[in-house]
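Supplementary Text 2. Reproducibility record for the structural model of the 384-residue chain.

All settings were left at their defaults, and a single model was retained for analysis rather than an ensemble. We include the record here because the model underlies the residue-level annotations in Supplementary Table 4.
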Amino acid sequence: MSLITPQEAQARMLADARPLPAEVIPFGASLGRVLREDLRSDRPFPPFDRVTMDGIAFRSRDQLSGTPLLVQGTHPAGQPAPPPLKPGHCWQIMTGAVLPTDCDTIVPIEEVTLTGATALVRSQPTPGSFIHRCGSDAPAGKVVLRSGTRLGPAHLGLLATIGAIKVKVTRLPRIHILTTGDELIPAEEIPKPHQLRQSNGPTLLAAIDHWGPTERTWQHLSDDLESITHAIEATLKEADLILLSGGISKGSKDFVRPALESLVGPPLFHGVAQRPGKPLAYWPGVVALPGNPNSTLTTFQRYVAPVLHRLTGSPEPEPTTLPLADPVKPHPTLTLFLPATLAADGKIRTLSPQNSGDFLTPLQATGLVEIPPGHHEPTSARFF
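Retained model, structure tokens:
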């Protein structure tokens, strides 16, 4: 098996991935989707001079120290600007109200003594305070959301604010998971001494859902060439991305590579100089992940997640390079991926799984650290 570097493996996968087409959907259904158009404010924001505190509003020239103002009335939010104030008067005003056109001063209610129809200011007010000026957030026509944005809850609030009730987003990726292994049984069943409960299928489903919204399916296959070949052939016609788990090493029951070669030809690569995940292989639109639980999740995070970003047109988060808290001995020829935690001091503390099937140690981690090959212990590493 000719091994390539993790960087070369990722580059080949990303070069093959093409952005999916866009579709227009209601904005209320767009959470987690990737925007495929720039969106502009349809009017200034805020669209009027907006009062930001409950209190009173008046003309600064009418307020003399120690002299109460007469309350002309109440001006709530959601109403047009009121008529002009009489001299020596004020409005009792609410948060979110339109600033009266002839007022320049707001005093919070906590700094006012209201007695009947009079208001006594107990502070030294500053004209212009507690006023959110028209257009100060964005003028009309300004781009407020860029194409490529993954839409979160706050973005949906902004869509509603600007009246973007239909939005153009990337079509959901269609992902098909195919797991292999005759020793694996459904989690609901009681295993015999020679069997294991299936974990990679649920893990990959959860990893995909954690990444973002998709259309995904999962099918478990027997370890025989005919079953694997037929399942892959059927899935190739439907999926944007196929994830295979297991059956990609050199064992006599590893049929993923011969099945795929009979259908689409040789892989773009098979074998990466890394631990865990050395047997990782890739065909156009097909990722063959190693079957050990730690290897499966590690290679998903390192390679599949960036491909999903490329397919949907969302920017891939940049890995962060941080100092290591403790020495980590590198492998002379393999990149190491170790589960790690980010400590309060901003340093990475690595954890050491017993082997690539150890799924308990990584549960304590908050990310992965990437240790390149070499002979010198690094002082910092990529954390993602």
